[in-house]
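Continuing the series of single-chain predictions for the mutant panel. This is the parent chain; the variants come on the following pages.
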Amino acid sequence: MLYYFSITNDIVGVCCQKADLSKKMSGNLSQSLNTIRADRLEILLVATNPTNCANSFFNLALHRLAIVKITINPIATSIHNLDYCIVGEKHDI
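Parent structure:
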């Protein structure tokens, strides 16, 4: 499952094509939360920088949307509802 707000570049477009299922989120926070919660996710990987307050994913990241929430952004670990952070050698802080 891939959730997105808009296709802003080729990477998002390719990911949408490769995903088994993708859902476009509305700009409405309540509707987006209900859409994700209805899928009853066990694991959610936040593969963007949710710490940018202007980013719609920031508001979503503040909520418990899955049993386990994972990020790939070490800065995002300060968000309470993110459980794990996956980093590699290129993610020096």
